[in-house]
Amino acid sequence: MFNNRDKSFVKIAGVTALLLSLYVIMLKSQINGSRNIKVNSKFDNLYLTATTFSPTTSLNGVTAVETVEHANGLTNSKEGESESSPTGSSKNKMKTLVLQVDNRDFDGVSYWSLSQCINTAYASAHGYVYKRVNSFETCLKQHEIAPAWCKVLAILDALKSGEYETILYLDSDAYVRNFSISVDDFLERWGRRDPGGQGPVVHAADDCCGQFANTGQMIVEKSPISLTLVEKWWELKYDFPNRQWDQRGFAELVRNNDTFKTSVNVIPTGEDSWYIGYRKIKFDSKYKESNWINHIPSNGYWRNERVPLMSKFIEEHGFIDCPNLTRG
């Protein structure tokens, strides 16, 4: 026979077991329903729900993959759209686009997938919109051009949409490594703006080996001049079919137009800014990382450092689950 004390204990144990069962069910549901990215104290303890990717048709028919779900109040702006809409964020943040373009599938283990994971988290942390444009179907099938040219079309379509004040374009081998620096912060330091806030509207990194600029990371601000420049740039897509492709076209376009010259800001590459190009420090065996954006070039030895550096960054900075993250 149980006394009253024993009966109370049994009731408490039963309730505890029930609560534990409910907790396990809820936990399993969360794990199955979403993947989480956790950012440690280096990023002010931000907690981000990993982006859910959904193919949509956007940017004048170019198939795009866009962020559709975030935590911290980030929700879709309206049904059918897949853009983040951060609660309480500034108007400028809402109109900043982080853009990447690639014709390869997201597999979770390649450098182009890992950079997407990192750059998506960066965009989410600052309340920006992130888009990855899959250029294979429309751009490459319609135009017999090098894949590098497709980013020009994607930038052009984003400008024509009129939705974004600022576009941060990143090649697939480029990623943001310092989340504490916003796009506006970078432009305040490097944008060559006058006291009234006026200045160049297209910003690119300088390059080595006689190249005018590296277009693998660019900031394009909305203006009639930037739209005209990118339109003229896209018109050159068949004129530069060989290596350097769009970069050669960009250099020729800007060098031969006085208006474009004053509208383009070529920012020094280095450890205190962004991108350190191939042969810029050719005698160093290891890639030297920059303060804001790493762009790890395809030439030579450094191409083998892409996946290790990106994977190391993801793990060291507390991303718990980047889809199918390689541990190699």
TrEMBL record:
InterPro entries: Glyco_trans_34, Nucleotide-diphossugar_trans. The keyword Transport does not apply. Residues 72-92 are annotated as: Disordered. It comes from the Eukaryota. The chain crosses the membrane at residues 12-31. Keywords: Glycosyltransferase, Membrane, Transferase, Transmembrane, Transmembrane helix. The keyword Cytoplasm does not apply. One of its GO terms (cellular component) is Golgi membrane. One of its GO terms (biological process) is protein N-linked glycosylation. One of its GO terms (molecular function) is glycosyltransferase activity. PANTHER family: ALPHA-1,2-GALACTOSYLTRANSFERASE, ALPHA-1,6-MANNOSYLTRANSFERASE MNN11-RELATED. Belongs to the glycosyltransferase 34 family. This is Nucleotide-diphospho-sugar transferase domain-containing protein. It comes from Aplanochytrium stocchinoi. The lineage of its organism: Eukaryota, Sar, Stramenopiles, Bigyra, Labyrinthulomycetes.
